[in-house]
Design brief:
By secondary structure, this protein is of the alpha+beta class. It is built from twelve helices and 14 strands. Strand 13 and strand 14 form a beta hairpin. InterPro entries: DUSP-like_sf, Papain-like_cys_pep_sf, Pept_C19_DUSP, Peptidase_C19_UCH, Ub_carboxyl-term_hydrolase, USP.
C-alpha cells in the first residue's frame, strides 16, 4: 500500500474523539489483520493475505441481529477484544465534564402502552444523550397516543412494572440526566393517576407498598444496570454503625463545599440522603440514582452500564466523602521530617499522624484511616529509614489453593515383590509429607457404628 495512504490511515487511527463523531464497531481480530495487510503494523508473513469483508454477525446481539435500525452489540462483548451483517454505528458522547467516549452500549428501555400489567410493550435502545421529549414522541407514535398537556411520562424500574414514578419535565432533559435505568418501563398517561396505583384497578400496583413499616437498614438497592459493584459496596458501608450514625446525625453541618480536592459536597449530600432513606424504615428497597449520578459526574469511569471493580468504587467514594466533610478549611503546608533513628516506633508514628491530621480531619478519617509502617534500607551503608504512611485500604492477596499432584510410588516388599501406588500430595510439600501420605494409605479406616 502506498506510504501516503498508510500515513492517512495512521492519522485517522490516532485522531482524538469529538462529540458527534460516528464510529463503526468492528471485530478486533479483523482490524489487527487489516493493519498488517495495510502495512501499519509489522507482519510475520512475507505477503499478508487480504482480511476479507468485515463480519458484524459475531458482535451483534442475536435478538436484534435482524432489526433494521436497532442492532445492538451483544452484552458480553469486550471493548478492545471482540469488536457480514448490518454495520453497528455508534457516536462519541460527552463523559462527565472533561472527556468523551464512544457509546458502544445504548440504554435498553421498554415502552409500555399503559401501566396495566397486561399492556403491550416494546423493547427499544437509545443513546444516553437522547432527549426525554423525543422519548415521548416515540411512545406516542408507537401506540398512537395524542400529545396532551394533561399527560406525562412515567417510569418503573422494578422488573414487573409495579412501582411508577413521574419523569422530570425539565427542558432539554436527557436520559442520562433523568438517570433512567437499564430496561426501565416507560409509559405516557394522565397526570391524575397515582404513581403507585393501576390505571385499570383500585388495587395498589405494588402490594408490599401497603406495609407501613419495615426494619430500618434492611433495605435492598435497585440495580441501575450492572451496578451490583456499587450496591455491594454501599450495603457494606451502610452497615458500618459509626459511619451510618454520623450520616443520620450532624453530617450536613460539616460539609465543606470550598475544598478544591472535594466534590463541592454533592457526593456527601447524595450519600447522606441515601442512608437516611435506607434507615427510614419506610420501604423495603430504594434506588441510589442520585448518588450514582453524582459519582459519575466527578468520576466518569463509573458512568454508563459497564461493570466495575467494587473496591475501586469504594475507594473513590470514601475519598470523596472524606474531602467533602474535611473540617480543615485551609490545608497548611507541612514538611515531613526525616527519620533520624532516635525516636521509638510509637513516638515516630504519633508524630507523623499529627502531621497528617493538620490537613485531614473528618469522620471518615477517624473511622477508616490508619498507618502502615515501611522501612527503607540503604544497600551500601545499611542505614534504615522508617515511615508511617496513612492508608485507608489494605489489599491482601487471597492465598492460592494448594496444588495437588499425584505421585507414583513403587513399594518393594522384603520378599522382592513390587507394588505401585498413586499417592496425592501437595506439589510444594517435602519428602516427609509424601511418606506420611503413603503410610496413611495403610492405616485402618475408622468405621462408624450405628
Amino acid at each position: 500500500m502506498a506510504s501516503k495512504s498508510v500515513g492517512k490511515y495512521k492519522k485517522l487511527l490516532e485522531k482524538d474523539n469529538k462529540v458527534g463523531d460516528k464510529y463503526v464497531i468492528i471485530d478486533k481480530k479483523w482490524l489487527e489483520h487489516w493493519k498488517r495487510y495495510a502495512g501499519i503494523e509489522k507482519s510475520d508473513e512475507e505477503k499478508p493475505t487480504k482480511p476479507g469483508p468485515i463480519d458484524f454477525t459475531s458482535l451483534a446481539d442475536p435478538t436484534t441481529a435482524n432489526s433494521s435500525n436497532e442492532v445492538q452489540v451483544r452484552a458480553n462483548a469486550v471493548e478492545g477484544n471482540d469488536y457480514k451483517g448490518q454495520e453497528i454505528i455508534r457516536k462519541v458522547i460527552p463523559l462527565g465534564d472533561y472527556s468523551t467516549t464512544i457509546e458502544v452500549f445504548l440504554v435498553p428501555l421498554r415502552l409500555r402502552e399503559s401501566r396495566a400489567s397486561y399492556a403491550n410493550s416494546k423493547q427499544i435502545y437509545r443513546s444516553r444523550r437522547t432527549k426525554v421529549e423525543d422519548l415521548k414522541k416515540d411512545i406516542c407514535n408507537e401506540y398512537r397516543i395524542p400529545m396532551s398537556a394533561n399527560y406525562r411520562l412515567y417510569a418503573s424500574t422494578d422488573e414487573k412494572g409495579f412501582d411508577w414514578e413521574p419523569i422530570s419535565e425539565q427542558a432539554n432533559l436527557t436520559l442520562d440526566d433523568a438517570d433512567l435505568t437499564k430496561n426501565a418501563f416507560i409509559t405516557y398517561e394522565s397526570r391524575n393517576i397515582s404513581t403507585h396505583s393501576s390505571s385499570s384497578s383500585n388495587k395498589p400496583y405494588y402490594d408490599v407498598g401497603s406495609k407501613s413499616h419495615y426494619t430500618p437498614g434492611l433495605c435492598g438497592l435497585s440495580n441501575l444496570g450492572k451496578t451490583c459493584f456499587m450496591n455491594s459496596a454501599l450495603q457494606c458501608l451502610s452497615n458500618v454503625p459509626p459511619l451510618t450514625a454520623y450520616f443520620l446525625g450532624q453530617c450536613e453541618d460539616h460539609i465543606n463545599r470550598d475544598n478544591p480536592l472535594g466534590m463541592k459536597g454533592d457526593v456527601a449530600k447524595a450519600y447522606g440522603d441515601l442512608i437516611r432513606e435506607i434507615w427510614s424504615g419506610k420501604s423495603s428497597f430504594c434506588t441510589p440514582k442520585s448518588l450514582n449520578q453524582n459519582v459519575a459526574r466527578y468520576a466518569p469511569q463509573f458512568s454508563g452500564f459497564s461493570q466495575h471493580d467494587s473496591l475501586e468504587f469504594m475507594s473513590f467514594l470514601l475519598d470523596s466523602l472524606h474531602e467533602d466533610l474535611n473540617l480543615v478549611k485551609k490545608k497548611p503546608y507541612v514538611e515531613k521530617k526525616d527519620d533520624d533513628g532516635k525516636a521509638t516506633d510509637s513516638a515516630l508514628a504519633a508524630e507523623q499522624w499529627e502531621y497528617y491530621r493538620k490537613r485531614n480531619q473528618s469522620r471518615i478519617h477517624e473511622i477508616f484511616h490508619g498507618q502502615i509502617k515501611s522501612i527503607v534500607t540503604c544497600l551500601t551503608c545499611g542505614t534504615q529509614a522508617r515511615a508511617f504512611d496513612p492508608i485507608c485500604f489494605l489489599s491482601l492477596p487471597l492465598p492460592d489453593k494448594a496444588k495437588i499432584r499425584i505421585f507414583k510410588l513403587d513399594y518393594v516388599r522384603l520378599n522382592g515383590q513390587i507394588k505401585s501406588y498413586s499417592i496425592k500430595c501437595g506439589e510444594n510439600g517435602r519428602m516427609h509429607n509424601l511418606i506420611q501420605e503413603f503410610c496413611g494409605h495403610f492405616q485402618p479406616k475408622n468405621k462408624s457404628i450405628r
